[in-house]
Amino acid sequence: MTPHQPVPTPLPAWFSPLLVIGLAAGAAAAGLGNGFAYDDVHLVLRNDRVHDLARLPALFAESYWPPVPLGPDGRLYRPLTTAAFAVQWALGGGGPLAFHLVSAGLYVLVSLLVLALARRILPLGPATAAAALFAIHPLHTEVVGNVVGQGELLAAGWGLLALVLALDGERCGWSARRTAGMLGALTAALLSKEHAVVVPFLFPVLLLAGGGRRALLRESAGKAAVLMAGVLILYLSLRHAVLGGISGDLMHPAWRGEPVATRWLTMLATVPTLLRLLVWPAHLQADYSPRELQVVHTLSGSALVGLGLLLGLGASAFAARRQPAVPAGLAWVALAFLPAANLLLPTGVLLAERTLFLPSVGACLVVGGVAAGIGRRFPDRGAVRLGWGALVVGVIFLGASRSISRLPVWRDNRALFSQTVRDAPESYWAWRNYAGDLVLRDQPDSARTAYERSLALFDRDPNVMDDFAGLERREGRCERSVPLLRRALALDPGRDLTAARLVGCLVTLGAFDAARVEAQLRLRRGREEFRSLLLMVDSVERARQLTPPPTP
Known about the structure:
This protein is mainly alpha-helical and 552 residues long. It has three domains: 14-245 and 392-409, no CATH class; 258-351, no CATH class; 427-546, Alpha Horseshoe (Serine Threonine Protein Phosphatase 5, Tetratricopeptide repeat). Helix content is 66%, strand content 0%. It has 23 helices and no strands. It has helices at 15-28, 39-45, 79-92, 96-119, 124-136, 141-145, 150-172, 176-192, 199-217, 219-243, 260-279, 302-319, 325-337, 357-377, 382-406, 413-423, 428-440, 444-457, 462-474, 478-491, 496-508, 512-524, 529-546. Mean pLDDT is 93; it is low at 1-7.
C-alpha cells in the first residue's frame, strides 16, 4: 500500500447492530397501523382459545387451528405461537396494535440474529451487508404485516439463536449453560412452527463454512448434532401424541390424485419465481395458486428452465467453494425451503412468500459471501470496493422503500383481497377470498361473479364450491347450491360439513328421500352427528304433511 492510499478504517463495534436495528425497525414500522387480516381473523380475532390466559397450558395439547364442527382434524402444532397470541391479546386488550408492535420487535431481533450468525462465517463488513439486506427485504412484508407471521418470526429467531450458540460452542468451548441454551432455543423454535425441523441440518452446513471439514469431524460437533437430533425426535413424538401423526397441513387440491412426479415437476417450474422473489422482489402477491403457478406434468418449458437454474446454482456453488459462505448460503436456501417444497410430502400451498422467510437468510449470506470475495480479490482497489458498497446501499434503499409501501396491504381483508386480485389475477384462490369479502359487504351479485371467475380458473377445489353454495343458500337458492355441493363431495367425499349442508338444502327443497340417503351414508361412516339430522329430516317432512296447502 503506497503512502497516498487511504488506510481502511474498521467499522466501530456499535455501527453494525445499530444500522440493522434502524433498518429493520424502519421497515417494520409501516405495518403498525394494520389490523387483523386473513388468517389473523380465525386464529386470533375469533379464536376464543387465545382470549383467556387460563387456557395457556391447554394450548400445548391442542392443534394450531381451532376445531370446526364436522371439519377435518388439525394437522399443525404451534403451541408457543398460539400462547404468544394469548399473552398479546391480554396485554393489548384484544387490539391489533400490541400484536404488530410485537411483530416489529421480533423482526428487529431476528435481523440482529442474522447479523450475529453472519459474523461467525464472514468478515464484519460483508456480514453487516448481509444483515442489512435481510432487514429491508420486501419479501418479508407478509411475515411482518400479518399477525400470524409471528410463527415464522419465532421459529426463525429461536432457530438462529440455537445455531449461534452451537457455533460458539464449537469455537469457544461448550459449557452446561451454552448447551442448555442451544437445546432450549431449538425446542422453542420447533414449538413455534414446523419449519424449524431444518435447524439441526443447517448446523453442519455452517460448520463447514466456518471451519471446514476438520470442524465438522470434531467429536464435540458430533455430540451437539446428536443432542439436536434427540430434541427433534422428542418434538416429533409430542406432535404425534397431540395430533395423531407427524404429517403436515392438508394438501393443496392441485395435488389430489397426482403422482409424486407431478409435484417435483411443478416445483421445478416454480424455481424462477422463487429465485426472483429472493433476488428482486419488486412484484409481490399474497397468493400463488393456479393459474398463477401451473401444475406441470412433463419436463418441458418452465420445468426445464427451473432445472437449468438449479444446475447453474450448483455449478456456482462449486466454483465459489473458496468463499465458503456462498455454497453455505445456497445450501441454506435449499434446506430451509425443503419443508414447504412439496418434494417429500404434499403441503397446503404451491408457493407462499412467508415460506421463504427462513430461506432468505441463506440468500443474504450468499450476498455477504460475494462481498467478502470481492474484498479479498481487490484488497487494494478502493474504486471496486466503493462501487460494490454503493450498489449495496442502493439496493438497501430500494428494498426499504418497497417494504414500506407494501406493508399497509395487510391492513385488513378488504385491502388485502382487493389488492391480491390485482397482483395475482390468475389465482383462483385470490378470487375466492375476494368473493368471500364481497359477501360480507352484502354485494351478492359481485360475489357470484368472483366465485364464477375462481371456478373458471381452477375447478378442482371443493372449498370454492362449498363457499359458492353458501352464498346461493343465503340468497334462498338451494336449487343452485345442491349441484355445487355435490360437485364438492365428488372431489372430496370425506367432507362431512359439506354433506350436512347438502342435507339441509335437500330438506329445504323437499327432497326428503335424497336427504336421508346422504345422512345415512355419513352415519355408516361413523359420524354420529348425522343422527340428529336424520331426525330433523323426518320432523320437517311430517310437519309439511300436516300443514294444509295455502288457500288460493
